[in-house]
Amino acid sequence: MAEQTFSIIKPDATRRNLTGKVNAVIEGAGLRIVAQRRIQMTRAQAEKFYEIHKERPFFGELVDFMISAPVVVQVLEGDNAVARYREAMGATNPAQAAEGTIRKLYAESVGENSVHGSDSADNAALEIVQFFKPEEIVG
Ligand code: CMP
């Protein structure tokens, strides 16, 4: 079933000019990039986006990292896009990520792990509206 998910190419990847290489893996996994924008996230945006993690010990570090350089926010579309993108990303910790996944190929650590992808279709919808207007998503 065609579905949408939300993706962020994180500062460690944009800093190393890996946007195109990450997008090649995304497209190779059968996902269409139907919206994309490079932004400098504000602290308020990052804190809201990661609100669910605010009690975690790494919250401050995570927010500081996400605003340390521009990110690329994206909407990806395809059959089972949420699960398909999670598979293409690989495990959160790059040391545990499978061969050929974005995190195995490019991530530096569990914190600086190159990409974010929604963990459910419900969360994808909530995340997409934080960064895109409906008319900006062109399928
Ligand atoms: P993401 O999918 O963006 O969602 C939450 C993020 O928290 C996760 O990716 C990691 O980048 C980050 N994270 C998870 N565990 C740790 C950790 N132990 N230290 C720093 N960051 C972490």
Describe this structure in words.
The structure is a single chain. The protein has 139 residues and is α+β, with helices and mostly antiparallel strands. The chain has seven helices and four strands, in the order E-H-H-E-H-H-E-H-H-E-H. A four-stranded antiparallel sheet has the order 2-3-1-4, with helices on both faces. The model has no long low-confidence stretch (mean pLDDT 98). It binds adenosine-3',5'-cyclic-monophosphate. Adenosine-3',5'-cyclic-monophosphate binds next to helix 4.
Q: Into which percent range does the helicity of residues fall?
A: 25-40%
Percent of residues in β-strands: 15-25%
Q: What's the shape?
A: globular
Quick check: average pLDDT? 98
Strand arrangement across the biggest beta sheet: 2-3-1-4
Largest sheet: 4 strands, antiparallel
Low-pLDDT segments: none
Structural class: alpha+beta
Radius of gyration: 14 Å
Q: Sketch the topology as an H/E string, one letter per element.
A: EHHEHHEHHEH
Question: What's the helix count?
Answer: 7
* Beginning-to-end CA distance, first to last residue: 14 Å
Distinct small-molecule ligands in the complex: adenosine-3',5'-cyclic-monophosphate
Q: How many β-strands, per DSSP?
A: 4
